Please model this.
Amino acid sequence: MVCRSGGHYQRDLAAVRRGADQVFLWVLLFQWAFAIAIAVLWSPRGWAGKVAHVHAHVWAATFLGAAINALPVALIRLRPGTAATRTVVTVAQMLWSALLIHLSGGRIETHFHVFGSLAFIAFYRDWKLLVLATVVVAADHLVRGLISPVSVYGIADPEWWRFLEHAGWVVFEDVVLVLACLRGLKEMRQTALRQAQVEEQSAALDRALSELGDSQEAMVRAEKLAAVGQLAASVGHELRNPLAAIRNAHAYVSRRLAAAGGELKADARVGQFMGVIERELAASSRIISDLLDFARERPPRLQPCPLRPLVDEAISVVPPRAHVKVVNSVPHRLPIPNLDKEQFRQVLVNLVQNAVEAIPADRPGEVAVAAAGGEGAPFSVEIRDDGAGIPEELRSKIFQPLFTTKAKGTGLGLAIVAGMVNRHGGAIRVESEVGRGTRFVIELPARAAAAVREVA
Amino acid sequence: MARIGITWSFTRAAVLPLAAAVWMTGAGTGFVALAAYKATPGPALRPPGGWPAGTALQPGARFTLVLFAHPRCPCTRASLSQLREVLSSHGEGVRAYVVLVRPRGAPAGFERSALWASAASIPGVTVVADPDGAEAERFRADTSGHAALYDAAGRLRFSGGLTSSRGHQGDSPGQDAVRAILSGRASPGGARGDGAPVFGCPVQDAPAPPVEEG
Model:
């Protein structure tokens, strides 16, 4: 909050000072034009007898005015808002007071330019500039007071401290302006703090609304999933028996066809269609198993389960692809974790199968399963592939039920994996780089696994 | 490469102080030149110690104050303001002339300027045209703004300018001296401020031609 309000304060102050620079750009240019105008109107020509020449005031207004303006105008254009710019502008403005007093023949009224200038300088809300301006005025009065006191004080023989008297009146205005500057800065700080508070509250409100929206969405999804899960479990259960009957019938017909001869055996399409029926029956069984696994959410029954043989078993189940090498890198001497063998086997099968399918068909690839930990330390199991990778925008969705990028996927595989890992007291995360591969890491805290075992 | 980077950084860091130094020097030089111009008086010879012979001006019964002016000189506006101020407070019994010099070779009517009107508006002042600067020569006035004050006996009591610098209004030694003399505060031996420098335009652009004898 403090940091944010400080940022607002600095930004607003910088804007105020850049704005003051722009004001001074026009003030400086106006003063230049004004000085030339009064010189041309008031004392255009000097004379020597009947011969006229351009008066020195016109040259002074034109060229000395240009010299005074050169650096501040350049800095305002090139480096607006900087301390150097406003310092130079301040000195220039006080030099303009001196020049205008010269050009007006020392008219006392022109001295009020000093006070007006101080008010303009206060636009910067930098009290140090007022001190600088006062020093310039005091120095000008001191030097000119020593050289030509009448040009400053209007009397020929002023007291030595007269410059202090003049500076004192300037200081009097300074006090008012410094207080105004400090008050202005305080108000800006308060405004910045209020703005930061409003922004923080607004952000908190946005977060709360977002969380509320997410919660509502999750709740609706959970309700839908629960309904779908119940329906799926019911349908899956009901479909199992017909599928078993179809499988038995298929087995019987296959055997009979194998034994039969003649026209049926000669027709190649009969054997081909029998193969299609077998594959689709297997696919239907797998879908039903997925649905039932997802719907049941059975608590894990933990028991000592060596991980390396379990990985071998999972790899053997996954349909092989000729160009994909699957490596079991789990150490032989890895301590034995407590796992629900059936569930964790399903976890490994799903992840290894996804990894194998992630390798593009036009190049060779490798899938490796590794593990570490035990002896009181958390277990970690890593399934790594060098396949196509998962785009960043999809990574947060892959564990959601029914989300899939595969043409024939159910969208339940990784949701089942995440659910089973969670029920083991663990967590799963994914790291991926498009074109380089993906790495799933399962972490099973030893303490959490033990707790689950006790509950089980 | 690192050396070049350091040199460039140093160069960039040095630009602003260098520019500021050049700027301050330039502005300072301009102010010094302006101050020098304003503080440089014109030549001012001392008028005759007695009322000049041959002048068309008539001396007053008590004091006679004569101010010579170039009709177009902008600096002389300040001298007229100073004169107005003196006469407003100490002008009783004073015969005051403002002599507007028409330089040699200047066209007729050259002296009829804004300064003429300004001088004529000062109470108690008689404005006189001075073709070819004859009166100015009699009083040895070479610079616009030169004032000469004579007493009833025709003695020169003050000669000099009434401003403290070129075109600058306000207290000046010359004005103080004239005030002191007119108010009787000055000693007959000489007022402090007598001989004050005169700030203004030269009334002639060339010296007077030599007078041919016989």
